[in-house]
Design a protein that fits this description.
Chain B: It is found in: Cell membrane. The complex is a heterodimer of chains A (404) and B (630). In chain A, 43% of the residues lie in helices and 19% in strands. Chain A is built from 13 helices and 14 strands. Chain B folds into 2 domains: 278 residues, ABC transporter involved in vitamin B12 uptake, BtuC (Orthogonal Bundle); 245 residues, ABC transporter involved in vitamin B12 uptake, BtuC, CATH 1.10.3470. In chain B, a hairpin with a 2-residue loop joins strand 1 and strand 2. Chain B is globular. Classes of the chains: A alpha/beta (404), B mainly alpha (630). Chains A and B meet through helix 1, helix 2, helix 3, helix 4 and strand 7 of A and helix 1, helix 4, strand 2, helix 9 and helix 10 of B.
Chain lengths: 404, 630
Amino acid sequence: MRGYFVGAGLAIAVASMATGAMTTQAMAQSEIKIGEINSYSLLPAFTEPYRKGWQLAVEEINAAGGINGKKLVVISKDDGGKPADAQTAANELVSSENVAMLTGTFLSNIGLAVSDFANQKKVFFLAAEPLTDAITWSKGNRYTFRLRPSNYMQAAMLVEEAAKLPAKRWATIAPNYEYGQSAVAVFKKLMSEKRPDIQWVDEQWPPQGKIDAGPVVQATAAANPEAILNVTFGADLVKLVREGNTRGLFKGRTVVSFLTGEPEYLDPLKDETPEGWIVTGYPWYSIKTPEHDAFLKAYQAKYNDYPRLGSIVGYQTIKAAAAILAKAGSSDPEKLIAAAEGISMSSPFGEITFRKIDHQSTLGAFTGKTALKDGKGIMVDTAYRKGSDYLPSDAEIEKLRPKD
Amino acid sequence: MAFYVVQFLTGLASAASLFLVASGLSIIFGVTRIVNFAHGAFYMLGAYVAFTLTERFSGAFGFWGGIVIAALVVAVIGVLVEMVLLRRIYHSPELFQLLATFGLTLMVEDLVVLIWGPDDLVGRRAPGFKGAIDFFGQNIPSYDLFLIALGPVVLGVLWLLFQRTRWGVLVRAATQDRDMVAALGVNQKWLFTSVFALGVFLAALGGALQIPRDAVNHAMDLRVIVEVFVVVVIGGLGSIIGAFVAAVLVSELNAFGILIFPKISIILVFLVMAVVLIVRPWGLFGKPEAPARRTPGLTVNPWRPLTTNERLAAIAVLVVAAALPFVAGNYVLTVGSEIAIFVIFAVSLHFLMSVGGLASFGHAAYFGLGAYGVALLSKMAGLPMIACLLLGPLLGLLGAAVFGFFAVQLSGVYFAMLTLAFAQIVWSIAFQWVSVTGGDNGILGVWPEKWAASPSHFYWLSLGIAALAVVILRIIVFSPFGFALRATRDSPLRGEAIGINGKRIQWTAFVIAGTVAGLAGALFAYLKGSVFPDNMGISLSVDALVMVLLGGVETVSGAVVGAIVYKALNIWLVSQTDLSKLVLGGFVVLIVVAFPKGIVGTLEAFMHRRRKSSSSASSPLLTSRIESAE
């Protein structure tokens, strides 16, 4: 009796998936498919602009004749913020959609999960956003490349400015998970190398997304630091800033902060934006290069909205994927790897290269200071820092990265 | 010294926010016994609506008026939900309402992004409470002081409402004994609706009042719901004062805990709950629940083993399923393996819930322990796959043996929440112990060996183990042990009277369920090639609950169908639509309405009725059903 229902359920499930798989076979000849995975439902604030960015890139590529004459198609999947679901999606993209490569991902653990999947199944994977150093170093593999400047690189950029500060007593506030932990660890290490006189007087580790900002601010203030390193972002950052402003935590203290200059995280703060924080970010309003102007114009024309950093990441991910596919002239993963190692291309931030040694791109980031203008937060005194200037020596990387 | 006073006040302000939401949940649960998973969604809606209103209407009146109106608007939505959806399912099996509110929560999460957009929204500061007050060199935000005052005021108003009005008397009576209140002729429909409205109002008010401190976003609901549940349980279900004390306790421990252990926040509330429940099984201010007056005729038709024909049918289905690799591609096979694994996981929880009557909210812990067991054995000890598959689940067994011992001392929702606390403790160990577990970056590279690596081989392996698990658990259900377990479930006192050691029986059942879940986790680790703390997270535990409830908790193996339907649908929707949560949530709500006893439960009842009408005189004993009083 009960068996029939089991059968029926299974049959429906199988039938629906099988039909999905069959219809996609026919088109394969005239197009190249890229499989894209991201946490669309979990992190819409980042992924919506990101999606717009890569859709613009696809449009541009196909308008220019596609990849070696073939039309580029991006098939996009949501991972819901779960590594296991990301692997299910990756598997679908590879096994039934026959994509030439995988791209995307935001969270570090999802990036690592897909990277491990790529290594196991021998599929080319271009990680877009995950910041963890592990993905190119300690857990790096030959199938995985990464676009965004890593934790280490962003920390190194910030340290350059932070080391100039007179402050000797430092406190840290970071979300309690891998990203926060490694950001703090790298920052501390690089900072203490440059400034052995520094004391680390307090650290706060609120759970990601669940900061109880009042007590955290009060506890940090109680340690009486001269400067603060902040790694929180998103809703946590808003709460921290609001409590910190009200309680006067930031008065007379310099704050160095990861990612806070990105429009995704800076714009919600509106007139509560604290001034003078040293941050990494994306000042789209003050970048005056021909490459960026072209991107900005195209983006605003298409969406009637300004780009966020996610837009850049999405755009450049697909541009890079297309460049690699065009150079390889094949979707064979070995040829893709050969093509990607050392490939140079233009980007809205200038020319970037995917390094052979650790598969990290040299895309950089902007640093600057936060300021208030017309009730909105902006970055001033901005400077673009090339990724290639903030990476450790080749010898160090050899030690970090497992041999292929 | 001034610092400690300020830190204490800061903790009190957090407590007040927490209490507002928790009180509403406590009231709703106390009277309707609904585990209102959507409480967080109402909290979030309150914040979003209040954001819109306070942005539109300026001035002090606009702000405070906007907050109150937002709470009222959401309360009206709550009333609609209660009247349209929940009223249909008050007579469904215990916890079935959880499924409906879970579906609602999923829908609301997608809806707010559709309506209000993906960005975090930062609302205005409260007029008159923008700054801070200097206290011996320390700053206290005046809004904190406002919240600190508001908490006791709300507590006082609720107390007056419950102690001094006829409505309050009825609510208290219903909290103590619903059936008796109904028997005395009180209109329950009206009572439930009004209670639900008040509870939702408080949740929405709590959300709206966060505007000056928080960023309104689509993840607010999950952030608050679990914590609020914990507070309610620590305080004692249905006790408003308990909720208040618990909120203060949790918030103060956090405020001072982070001074000594900055990483404590992530696990603190669960540690407190575990300790409180072990020492005081009914929470700080709760009273022992009266022994359930449930009649033994719980199930529609008494359970029986499959007949020969049904067995043949089941085997036929298994053969068909085993033939899948000859027609399907790799992706379908991998999804098939995943579904088979979730069948194992769901039947293990189903065994605990339907046979043991013990609903666990933290069953993913044992799934995750099995997965970590495999990962650690294969990565650190380098054991072969077979050995890992056999030994890995033992970690699940071990965990279940330790935690189960404490958990089975409790019953009902207290049992559920203690299992949740244990699961969160295990999760946080996996999350924090970076040197062994890799933290949230997990353990990678746990791939199956050559003989099982191809999707078809792994599918057969998973399917075979799933079939074995279902058969073994069914055998246990109809063994003397199974009967003893059911006796303990239906009537602990009578069971004890005939010499059944109920606690030990339940403990054994807990260990069995945990081990089978560990087996599922072990397979899952090999399927995905990696293990993450996610594998023991709350959302996985909730998924398992949903599968069991969807299948039908009053059936012998309904979870098999529940797991297949839910998992297949979930994977398919996530792959096909950007609004998977909205569609999935809507689907869950529809199923709840269409199949008020779960899919298999409703179908069984339907078949049973048909059989009865076709051979009406066959066996009156078997078909006589005793309605429980509610």
